[in-house]
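Reopening this ticket.

The earlier resolution said the output was attached, but the attachment link was broken on my side. Pasting everything inline this time so it's all in one place.
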Amino acid sequence: MNGAALQPVRGSSLFRWTCSRTMNGSIYYTRVINECAWGSRRRAQECAPYRQHGGRARTPVRAESKRTHPTQRSKPEDCACVNSGLNFGMHTRLPRNLSCLAAFVLVWPASLLSAQTTPATNSEPSVYEFREQHDRDGIGKFYLGREIAQVMGHQAADWLERPEREAEEKPSLAIEALNLKPGETVADIGAGTGYYTRRLAGKVGTNGTVFAVEIQQEMLDLLTNKMAELNIHNVKPVLGTVTDPRLPANSTDLILMVDVYHEFDHPREMTQAMLKGLKIGGRLVFIEFRGEDPQVPIKPLHKMTEAQVRKEMAPFPLEWVQTLEVLPIQHIIVFRKKSELPP
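Inline output:
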């Protein structure tokens, strides 16, 4: 049997079609789970850049090959992101009924194929809205008018550690702006590889503690290895969930989220859970790419405006303290916990 894989239509990331020729010349098609929706795993990792002009890549969760740097661009013919049609592995004349099937797939709206929505269930609060047609960079779930962005997988971890990050984002300025004190307890939510975690650990000192919270065990493994390598001992890794960072109650002086809140697929539940771990008077800090600025080269769903952040925090016992604009392309939005959550 001689098989030839078809390239998927634009936006298709969950399934792919394969065609195979039998010994008597017949052709049949099978819809299979798509581990890598584009011609090769290496190219797949370049097809959905987080940045509008290269940058953070949203790599397929199952990709196993060594990931190329996300700023490297694929050729148009190599990438399904710019190939809206099916590309046959062999030039074969199709039977009429199969031609109709291929035409159906070709004309199916890409916006629907990319709509990987979370189905509404009885357990989902009514504050969420679900739409079949949505931005290809989102999950089809909306919270207070904002579509929730897709999450970056651990395969893109090297982007977090890129050498040019200091020049692009000035994280050293962000750390200074937090005004941390020795002995404080800080939580780094969505800690990733620990890029910010280890800088926070240096500020709170040996008598302080940093909870490094992640929902991907692979990221925590990278983080803990890095902390051991740097001989940092005041970081406690925490494997959280999509609804709970699992912080000890009333334990933290500051909770920091760097370019991560917009990816929470349960933002209301996560905020409630984070506030349970925050002391009264403690600070909740967002660092997000500025959604107000079209010149910031980040895809829209991965940016947030100050107004949207404040809107989403309004239901909680928080007071806005300040918004700092000391960073090149991000803002630092600071809230303070006024009281405990109502029972």
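Reporter confirms the inline version is readable. Confidence is low (pLDDT under 50) at residues 1-50, 53-120. Residues 217-229 form the longest helix (13 residues).
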